Amino acid sequence: MSRENSSNGVLIGAIVGGAIGAISALLFAPKTGANLREELSNKFKAISEKTKDIATTVGHHTKEFAANVGQNTKDLTGSIKEEAGDLADHAKKSNQHVMDSLTSAKEEIKDDLAATGR
User: Which of 2, 9, 84, 97 has fewest C-beta within 10 Å?
Assistant: First the structure.
């Protein structure tokens, strides 16, 4: 077993053991039924509130993350479109340069053939 798995097992064991200990302490403490129920109810309410707070925080962070991802995607898409346009322009210019060079070479060959009488 790796050290990380062992550490995780110890942590989980400590959490579970602590929860069992807390529940046992509540159940075996010399309290009346009404006091025990009230204390359990208060603990449950506290846990519920904490869970709601965590869920709200996670929801807010998720919305912020989604907004950031959306904006970054939009920015990236714009950059890609711009670069693609620049590449297309460069390709057109290069193609025109090649065509001009071919036309010029063709004219030179015609002139050379005309000069030699062929």
Answer: 2
